[in-house]
Write a structure and sequence with these properties.
mainly alpha; three-stranded antiparallel β-sheet; 16 helices; single chain; 12 strands; globular; 6% strand
Length: 546
């Protein structure tokens, strides 16, 4: 629905471009809200204890949509009567609105037939404005429900998330440029071009993204192993929450949307700072200390047992080690490419700086994910729940920098050993071997010669295994005379040669030894004036009447 927009005449297209961008933003917000409302209404219909009516379900859907953008909800229907904040954002639920606004901005900037191409700044403003207008209406509607929205969280991080996704969509539609804008001074462009700014910035972004991905993958692996290890406890908590199959569907969906959060928690655990289970409890590989405020939930069954950590807990430190090596590898891929020599590779300082900046990017990305994956679930002991973002980001930076920079330098030295890249030498050797491979080549040594055939391509498949290899050689002997024509004769068992002088008008053939009984058929060269005239057009001797 957001991919194409109607085409207009050229005189009307320019004025309608901002309106189309605004509508794309509003439509993206409506699609996300509608999808979530359909899901909540389906669960409400299938629930045996639905007592709030369809209005309550719609208010819940609106509140969850705002929570997916990072807004903090205030729950008023608590047992104690005091409002309780809910700030833990399901990251999988947040993927949908971010992707929709990114797609809307990307498609709005692309020029279509019948309308001019819009500007990047105008597209960003219109798409963000349309999306935020729908968000303001949803916020006003959700105020009357049991889950209201905290006003400060609407500006940060909700509005920042929307504008960031729109900016990313505009950047994608512009070709993902990594360079200063066109209005920057020319001297700045020239200086950055001499220092390979774009190439190094791309390497930094790729290495940082790869490091974050490895940390998330390692965290997810840690959670999966822990769930298998505590499978019985996870099953008991699931049964306790769901009761029957109708109640198990919402619990299962909630666990699925919280899987990325669990992966971030696992990454924080492997990095060392761990995560908090309340204000008085912290879980790290070294120890599980304090009294946790642990609600009953299947994913929380993967939490290790209380007390000091064991060797199995310390093994989680392999995750940041792999992340540091990954940052180094993605840096060296650009700093010393496979087919580059020493003169084409980056310097030691450039390689170390790129790896260090990649580690900084990895730390910033990990800190942002840790801040989004945690949050309060109530008041009192549940006011802190999840990893501490600044500790997690600092640990990711320290691990990837201390490992990534030296490993990147070692990999660079390994690739450039001996003066040239080892892959470049290997490619050169393979190329030389391919050129020296036996091929069928036609060599004309004089205008009066017939090209001889290669020996390798003419072996007979019906030849007996007892034959010697020398019997397969091609032998051609030239009879002295002006302009002899050499015709190769492949003999089997009997070496023979024939030469036909180009002058005299008659053909002569020399008979060889008597052929053996086991010689292959057709193992002879026909001779005669006709063969002499038709051996090669233009090179045979003059025709002779029989």
């Amino acid at each position: 629905m957001t991919e194409r927009s109607p085409s207009l005449p050229a005189e009307q297209g320019r004025s309608a471009v901002p309106a189309f961008a605004f509508l794309r933003g509003a439509l993206a917000a409506g699609l996300g809200l509608g999808a979530l409302a359909v899901l909540v209404m389906t669960l409400w219909i299938s629930s045996p204890t639905a007592d709030n009516g369809p209005g309550g379900a719609l208010h819940t859907a609106a509140a969850l949509w705002l929570l997916a953008h990072g807004a903090e909800l205030i729950r008023t229907d608590t047992l104690g009567g005091a409002p309780a904040p809910v700030g833990l954002v399901p990251l999988l639920l947040a993927v949908m609105p971010v992707w929709l606004v990114h797609r809307a901005a990307r498609d709005a900037l692309e020029s279509a037939e019948g309308r001019p191409a819009p500007s990047a700044a105008g597209t960003f403003a219109m798409v963000s404005g349309g999306y935020l207008l729908v968000g303001a209406a949803v916020t006003f509607y959700a105020r009357s429900g049991s889950l209201s929205v905290s006003a400060p969280s609407l500006f940060f991080p909700s509005a920042v998330v929307v504008m960031g996704a729109a900016a990313a969509g505009v950047w994608t539609a512009s070709g993902r440029p990594i360079a200063p804008p066109s209005w920057a001074p020319v001297r700045l462009h020239e200086k950055l071009a001499r220092t390979r700014f774009s190439e190094r910035a791309e390497a930094v972004c790729r290495s940082a993204a790869a490091g974050v991905a490895v940390l998330l993958g390692g965290g997810a692996l840690l959670v999966a192993v822990a769930l298998v290890w505590h499978a019985q406890a996870a099953q008991q908590s699931f049964v306790q929450l769901s009761g029957d199959w109708e109640g198990g569907v919402p619990v299962l969906l909630l666990a699925l949307v919280l899987v990325p959060n669990a992966a971030v928690w696992g990454a924080a655990y492997g990095l060392g700072p761990g995560f908090a289970l309340g204000t008085a409890s912290t879980v790290t590989p070294l120890a599980f200390s304090g009294r946790p405020a642990l609600p009953v939930f299947p994913l929380l069954a993967a939490v290790p047992a209380q007390g000091p950590g064991t060797v199995l807990n310390w093994a989680a430190g392999a995750v940041p080690v792999v992340a540091g090596v990954t940052v180094a590898w993605f840096t060296v891929r650009r700093a010393a490419p496979a087919h580059a020599g020493r003169e084409e590779a980056w310097s030691l300082w450039g390689t170390a700086l790129t790896a260090g900046l990649g580690a900084v990017g990895c730390g910033v990305g990990t800190a942002a994910l840790a801040a989004a994956a945690g949050g309060p679930l109530g008041i009192g002991a549940l006011a802190e729940f999840g990893p501490v973002w600044w500790l997690t980001g600092a640990a990711a930076l320290a691990w990837t920098a201390l490992l990534g920079v030296p490993v990147a330098l070692l990999l660079r030295a390994w690739r450039l050993r001996g003066g040239d890249g080892w892959r470049a030498r290997r490619v050169a050797q393979e190329t030389a071997a391919a050129k020296c491979a036996p091929e069928a080549q036609v060599l004309a040594k004089s205008p009066g010669q017939v090209p001889q055939e290669s020996d390798d391509g003419g072996r007979r498949w019906w030849k007996r295994s007892g034959r010697r290899d020398e019997d397969e050689d091609e032998v051609a002997e030239a009879v002295p005379g002006p302009g002899p024509v050499h015709v190769p004769v492949r003999a089997s068992g009997v070496p023979a040669a024939a030469a036909f002088p180009a002058t005299g008008g008659a053909a002569s053939a020399a008979a060889a030894d008597e052929r053996s009984d086991d010689s292959a058929p057709y193992d002879f060269l026909p001779t005669g004036p006709w063969h002499e005239r038709t051996a090669l057009p233009g090179e045979a001797g003059p025709s002779v009447d029989p």
